[in-house]
């Protein structure tokens, strides 16, 4: 089993910053794999909207993807020692308000965090 725990959300004013974290752990046959064995991504879902990918990191860590709406403001990174994925969010806007989810992918299997709420007020 793979478990992802999202944290770091909160209520902030427009222009402020937040850093989200996603702690990855595994048990059984998957326990030997660290976060650097997964392709990782952050998604978000606003009320009434589809879930969208805002940032992604390849399993080797050499490639990143950013949604156009966050490029230049958000940064995805990971700490292999802590098995933790991060999303640094700067210059937050009201339209960034959503529940943010971490996703880990290995092969054809996806694993999701429980989500953390980010609310940006003007």
Unreliable residue runs: none
How do the helices and strands follow one another from N- to C-terminus? Answer: EEEEEEEEEEE
Q: Main beta sheet: strand number and arrangement? A: 7 strands, mixed
Residue-averaged pLDDT, rounded?
A: 96
Decide which structural class fits the backbone.
mainly beta
Give the oligomer, counting copies of the same chain as homo and different chains as hetero: single chain
From the spread of the alpha carbons, the general shape counts as globular
In percent, how helical is the residue content? under 10%
Fold blueprint:
Elements: E1 2-7, E2 10-13, E3 18-26, E4 39-45, E5 52-57, E6 64-66, E7 74-79, E8 84-89, E9 98-106, E10 109-112, E11 116-121
Parallel strand pairs: 2-11
Antiparallel strand pairs: 1-3, 3-8, 4-5, 4-9, 5-6, 7-8, 9-10, 9-11
Description:
- With 122 residues, this protein is mainly beta.
- Helices cover 0% and strands 54% of the residues.
- The chain contains no helices and eleven strands.
- The strands form two sheets. Strands 2, 4, 5, 6, 9, 10 and 11 form a seven-stranded mixed sheet that branches.
- The protein is globular.
- The mean pLDDT is 96.
List keywords for this structure.
single chain, 122 residues, mainly beta, 7-stranded mixed sheet, 0% helix, globular
Q: Brief overview, please?
A:
The chain has strands spanning 2-7, 10-13, 18-26, 39-45, 52-57, 64-66, 74-79, 84-89, 98-106, 109-112, 116-121.
């Amino acid at each position: 089993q793979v478990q992802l725990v999202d944290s770091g959300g909160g209520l902030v004013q427009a222009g402020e910053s937040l850093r989200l974290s996603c702690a990855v752990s595994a048990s059984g046959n998957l326990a030997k794999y660290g976060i650097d064995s997964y392709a990782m991504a952050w998604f978000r879902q606003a009320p009434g909207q589809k879930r969208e990918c805002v940032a992604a990191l390849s399993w080797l860590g050499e490639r990143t993807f950013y949604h156009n709406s966050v490029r230049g403001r958000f940064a995805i990174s990971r700490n292999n020692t802590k098995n933790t994925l991060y999303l640094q969010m700067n210059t937050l806007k009201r339209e960034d308000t959503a529940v943010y989810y971490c996703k880990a992918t290995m092969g054809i299997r996806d694993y999701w965090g429980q989500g953390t709420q980010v609310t940006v007020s003007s």
